[in-house]
Structures are given as C-alpha cells and as structure tokens.
Amino acid sequence: MIDLHTHTNESDGTYTPFELVDSAVALGLEALAISDHDTLAGYDQALPRAQEKGLDLVCGIELSTKSNGKTVHLLGYFLAQPPSGGFRDWLAEMQATRRDRNRRMAERLRSLGIDITIEEVEKKGRSLTGRPHFARLMLEKGYVSSIQQAFDEYLDESAKGYVDREEPELSASIQRLRAAGGISSIAHPVRLGYRDPGKLRTLVGEMRDAGLGALECYHSDHKAHDVEQYLGLTREFELGVTGGSDFHGDAKPNVRLGVGTGNLNIPRSVLDHLREIRPS
Ligand code: AMP
Ligand code: FE
Ligand code: FE
Ligand code: ZN
User: Fold this and answer.
1) Would you say residue 260 has pLDDT above 70?
2) What is the Å distance from ligand 3's center to 7 Cα?
3) Domain positions in the chain
4) DSSP3 helix / strand / coil % (the chain, rounded to 5)
5) Separation CA 147–CA 169 (nearest Å)
6) How far apart are CA 172 and CA 181, in angstroms?
7) Minimum-distance ligand to the CA of 12?
8) Which ligand lies nearest the alpha carbon of 13?
9) Entry pTM
10) Distance from Cα 108 to the centre of ligand 2, integer Å
C-alpha cells in the first residue's frame, strides 16, 4: 500500500513532517508522497527522517490553480529529483500573493465583527497560512462552533468574509511543473463538481494537450463509480494514475493515512508505473 497525497503542518495538516514519516513507517506504507499546498518545506524536512527509516519518500506538491474561474487543485510529483531553484522562486511569489490576500481577509473579517489579527492567524500556520488557519482561530475564539461553520458562514468562496487571491492558470501550472521535471495530476476530480461527465472529459483532453501527466483516480472522496470513470479517462487519454488519502491529521480526523475513510488501498504498482512514464 502507498499514499501519494498527504499534508504536514507546513501547510494545513497537523502532523509534523517527522510524525508523518514515522506514521507511514508504523503503518508499513511502501511509499509516501508529501503533497503540501504550495510549499516544499514539509518534504524538505521529512527527507532525512525518511532516509534514516528506509521509507520511499516522494517529493510532491498541491497547487491551487484556476481554470475558467474555477479553482482546480493540481498535484505535482518530482520522481527523479526535487525541483530546481526557479520553481521554488515561483512558489515564493505565490506565497507572497497569498500573504497579501490573508491580510485583506483579516481586515474584511474584522469589519464583520470578528476580532482577529493577521499576526494571530499567521501564528497558526508555518510555511503557509490559509483559510483553514483562519477557521481554526475563529473556532478557538468562539466565533463559530465548528471549522465547517467558519467556512459556510465566512470563508467559503461564496461567503461574506472571503477575499479572492490570484491563482495561476491550470495550464500554465502544468507547464511549470513539467519544466521543473515534475509530472502533474488533477487532484480529486470529484470536487470539481461536474454533473455532466463530458465536462471533465473536455477539461482533461485540453489539459493533456497542455502537458498534463496524470489523473488522481484514487482519493478518499471517490466512490467506486468515480474511480472507474477516472480510470477510463486515463486509458482514453493515455495518462498516468495517481492516488492518495489527502491525509491532514487531526484537521480531517475521518481521513486516515493510507486507508482514507476506510478501504483505500493503493498498490505500489501505481507508483512504479508513474516512474516508468515520467518525462526524462
Ligand atoms: P486557501 O488556499 O487559503 O484559499 O484555502 C483553501 C483550503 O481551504 C482548501 O484546501 C480546503 O482545505 C479548505 N476549504 C476551502 N473551501 C472549503 C469549504 N467550503 N469547506 C471546508 N474547507 C474548505
Ligand atoms: Fe488542505
Ligand atoms: Fe486539494
Ligand atoms: Zn490535499
């Protein structure tokens, strides 16, 4: 069993990179990818620990991108070596625009009567502070009674406290990953919310032409019929397959490492195949 989609506390997970490696080893995972949102800091810290423990650790990332006004999460995997400085500089630029958005969002929330400062929110995050950290602080201060309520009432894209952030285009992000030696994979396609399967097919076809490498077919949110649909698209468009739990530690307690919400069980062959098709 492997898990190619996990988060540490360098983004919005709660496990430290060390704890995540140790948990993967304890569970007997054959490979683990750390795919934090917009940062490689968790992977960088985990690598020496993984080497010490003999764990096959894959360098990954999950980018928030935009396509036709919709947010699309894009996974990237660096199977040969971690990305170069140029890619890291690009991530640093995105972190700067996110920080700017966070400042404006703290102000908006203050204007709505929520007494929080950007300093307090940033203390909750490490390399990256995002909306989940806002939600945690609002819960702690008693403005909401759950993380979900914080999103529903304030932080969701359609809610009154939300402030937009400039996100890179999906196709440009695919090309960035590729130029940095990575293979890209559209994360949890089910969350795109397309009722008409033809829409996803069109997007996948277009993105394949832009250099897309794979589709995340296995994910905690995917039902058996979703998996079949996505595997079908990978065959049709000759794409790779990725999969993982999307583990966030105690931030999403119903999703467990490796097994997801119960019986996710991704075979090692998925990673072996990715390694075969990766662009050289
Ligand atoms: P950010 O990148 O700071 O805009 O935050 C995005 C993250 O917030 C996503 O990766 C999700 O984990 C979380 N999120 C976004 N919308 C919702 C929602 N409606 N309910 C719960 N979590 C959400
Ligand atoms: Fe997340
Ligand atoms: Fe995601
Ligand atoms: Zn994720």
Assistant:
1) yes
2) 10
3) 2-84+174-277, 92-155
4) 45, 15, 35
5) 28
6) 14
7) 2
8) 2
9) 0.95
10) 22
